[in-house]
Amino acid sequence: MERWTAGKILTSTVTVLFIAAMALFAVYPVVYALLGSLKTNMELTLGGTFLPAKPMFQNYIDAFQKAKFILYSINSVVLSVMTTVLALITSSLAGYVVARHQFVGKKLLMSLYLGLMFVSLGAVSLYPQYILMYQLGLTGNLLGLAIVLTGGQAANVFLIMGFTKSIPKELDESAFMDGCSPFQIYRTILLPLIKPILAVVALFTFRSTWNDYITSLIFTMSRPELKPLTVAVVSLRYSTNAAAELNIMTAGASIALLPILIVYLLANKQFISGLTAGAIKG
């Protein structure tokens, strides 16, 4: 039987406290939003109370009606699915090429790609992106927005590249000797083996697209009927008489949490297996 020394007890205690603190920081905003969605606007504005004096479920009805949740939820689902599919295709192809093939300027390209991961252009890049999509005639639909949101996925490429390197290259050489082209090797050999990491990339991409606000706001200003749910929820903050209605917005935000939670619950097994496999193979 293992003996617990003072050092081990201290280490375990610090670890548990740290994990508990991180869990509290992650869960508290969600709990606060859920409780705030049941408060009156005055309670939420003045603060000072954690629990609502009387649950106001009418906030959810008002939010559902004012934000046209069905229409904007469909927009968000379509946008998130399109972006996720594009991200999976482009990042898996890029990760495969970088991991398996040599070409001129590869090291320079990867150095620049890696360096740009730590440079956040933010809103500065929105104008050239909008102009580019406008010139391509893609500003009046969700496809152009999905293409824009697909960009800047260096982290996904490096995840897939690292996972691909852990797969024996002899599989590629054997398939090549049997007459497979590089694309056939990618489609028939690589894709089935990297499904765990693709699930991680898909979940991250879906989540970031669903939660995106500023880019979606800019690209749907000309056609408000195309705006996703996140943009619609924020617009609930002000009513028709310009009075702040934080309780309605909070209720809308709480409803908007449900789809992404459902996606996570459905993909939880693949997500955990992808992270675990990546950690072991990496």
What is the CA–CA distance across the termini?
33 Å
Here the CATH topology equals MetI-like fold
Tally of structural domains: 1
Unreliable segments of 5+ consecutive residues: 278-282
Can you describe this structure?
73% of the residues lie in helices and 0% in strands. The protein has 282 residues and is mainly α. The protein has one domain (61-281): MetI-like fold (Orthogonal Bundle). The model is unreliable at 278-282 (pLDDT under 50).
Task: Give the SSE map.
Blueprint: H1 6-36, H2 41-46, H3 58-66, H4 69-100, H5 106-116, H6 126-135, H7 142-150, H8 154-165, H9 170-177, H10 182-193, H11 195-211, H12 214-219, H13 229-235, H14 246-281
Helix pairs in contact: 1-14, 3-14, 4-7, 4-8, 4-11, 9-10, 11-14, 13-14
Family: Belongs to the binding-protein-dependent transport system permease family.
Pfam families: BPD_transp_1
Organism: Paenibacillus thalictri
Summarize this, please?
The chain has 282 residues and is mainly α. The protein has helices at 6-36, 41-46, 58-66, 69-100, 106-116, 126-135, 142-150, 154-165, 170-177, 182-193, 195-211, 214-219, 229-235, 246-281.
List keywords for this structure.
single chain; disordered C terminus; 14 helices; mainly alpha; 282 residues; MetI-like fold
